[in-house]
Amino acid sequence: MPLRIFEAGGTGRTDGFPIMPDFIAKQSMTPGAASAQSSAFNAGTSLIVIQADEACHVLRGANPTATTADYKMLAGSEMAMTVRTGDKLAVIQA
Predict the structure, then answer these.
(1) Are the CB atoms for 60 and 89 separated by under 8 Å?
(2) How many Cα neighbours within 13 Å face the side chain of 9?
């Protein structure tokens, strides 16, 4: 079952308060028994929205390796997080 990553840039407003931003890229991964990394996020990406079809653990960073001690996403859940240019997301099955 895939994990979908939607990359977004900007805030969508000029006063700095975020609203639903424009998605500028999408990635899809399948969590497995070993940690796997996404591609590096685009230069314009400041926020990602993650949708998990199955329970998994995620970790972001320049060269992350996810473990079962990292943040757990439940099956059917969604979350948003800020990222820096070049960050990646690592994922592993729960």
Answers:
(1) yes
(2) 9
